[in-house]
Structure formats: structure tokens, C-alpha cells
Task: structure prediction
Amino acid sequence: MGKGGSMRLAYRARWGRLVMVWAVLAAMVYIITCMASCDMATAATMDKQELTAHMTPYFNEVVDAIYIAEGGAKTRHPFGILSVKCEGYQECREVCFNTVRNNYFRWIDSGRKGEYLAFLANRYCPVGASNDPKGLNRNWLGNVSKLING
Result:
């Protein structure tokens, strides 16, 4: 094969790779778009138990982010739990998980106004709370959001 033939093959190989990359990107955009719209449609047909099972991975992400934002292993109040007595990581994690889950349903019941994490922040650590004399609660939403979104 001459020089022109090998150049055509190299051009076709590059073109083929480019087409494949574009196809993969288009498929990813389609899947992500479908997941976003399908999630809402799916969620509308689920009862609370099914929705909890569906949302548990996300709830766990939120709980993990709260743990870190509230001081992690260095704090005296794991997960920032002050409203009820809990001892140790696991018990406080359960309290936090229940709070995250229950407030998710409150957010749905209230018509999903605004973002869920902002709704949770207003209940979990409201700005201006009497137990926050230094005003640190104002950082909670940003910190938790960054920890979730990487």
C-alpha cells in the first residue's frame, strides 16, 4: 500500500475514534437527562418505603457530608445532633439519617419549594439559632453542598 493509502487509513481511524467519542458523550447526556426526568416520574408513583429505598444512597451521602461538616470524629456531638441524646457514631448516625429522610418527605409535602438541601439547612441548623452564638450555621449549607458535590 502506498503513502496515500496509509494516510487514508490513519484519517479513517482518527475519524472513527472521534465519532465514537461523540456517540458516547451523546449517550451520556441522554442517560443523565432521562435519569433526571425519570427520577421525578418514578418518585411520584412510589410510596414512602419505596422512595426511602430508592433515595437511601443519596441520604447516606448527605449524612456523610453532615458528619464531616459538623466536625467528624473530633466533635463531642457527632453529626451535630443537639436536639436528642445520642451516644456514639452509629446511634447519632441513625438520628441524622432519620432527620435527613423525614425532612426529605416534609420538603416533598411542602411542594418542593427551593432546593432540598436549603430546606434541610433551615431545619437542621437554622441561621440565627439561639445555640449558634458565633453564627457558624450560615456556613452549613455551603459546606455540606461542597462535600456532596466534591
Q: What stands out?
A: Residues 24-38 have pLDDT under 50 and may be disordered. The chain has two domains: 1-45, 46-149.
